[in-house]
Design goal:
By secondary structure, this protein is an alpha+beta fold. The protein has one domain: Aspartate Aminotransferase, domain 1 (Alpha-Beta Complex), CATH 3.90.1150. 32% of the residues lie in helices and 27% in strands. It contains four helices and nine strands. The strands form two sheets. The chain has a seven-stranded antiparallel β-sheet, covered by helices on one side. The protein has a two-stranded antiparallel ribbon with strand order 4-5. A hairpin with a 5-residue loop joins strand 4 and strand 5. Helix 3 runs antiparallel to helix 4.
Length: 130
């Protein structure tokens, strides 16, 4: 089995954030970092080259495979910000209706910028993800 590339490492979260060219995206991801740190009570850590994760948990698949993973996290991508929040999509349909502009993927919530979503609703989704 190949080794997983997305694992916690010692790279600097602040250096990663500061490497993002677009100023508004840097501000948005810094705000999301603060929200997730506050909710999880865990410091931000880099997971792989481009995911900021918070906390640690053991993920166990139906196959029995075990994986060290983060409690929640996000990745600032070129076109959007991918939020990895447990059950953010499946268990929060009522909140998602009030969130604002977003897209979903398998277990991921994608937003373009914080100004397009209701911050209080996002905080609630993050809290429920714990």
């Amino acid at each position: 089995m190949s080794e997983l590339k997305t694992k916690q490492n010692e790279a600097s979260v602040n250096d990663f954030i500061n490497s993002i060219a677009e100023e508004q995206k840097r501000k948005d991801i810094d705000a999301i970092k603060d929200l997730m740190e506050k909710a999880t009570k865990a410091k931000a850590k880099m997971w792989g080259p481009a995911i900021i994760g918070f906390g640690d948990r053991l993920l166990v698949y139906e196959s029995g495979r075990k994986l060290d993973w983060f409690v929640m996290g996000f990745s600032p991508r070129k076109q959007n910000i991918a939020l990895y929040i447990n059950d953010a999509v499946s268990n929060n349909q009522d909140l998602l209706k009030r969130l604002g502009k977003y897209k979903t993927g398998k277990g991921c919530l994608y937003i373009n910028k914080l100004s397009e979503v209701d911050l209080d609703v996002l905080k609630e989704i993050i809290q429920k993800g714990l």
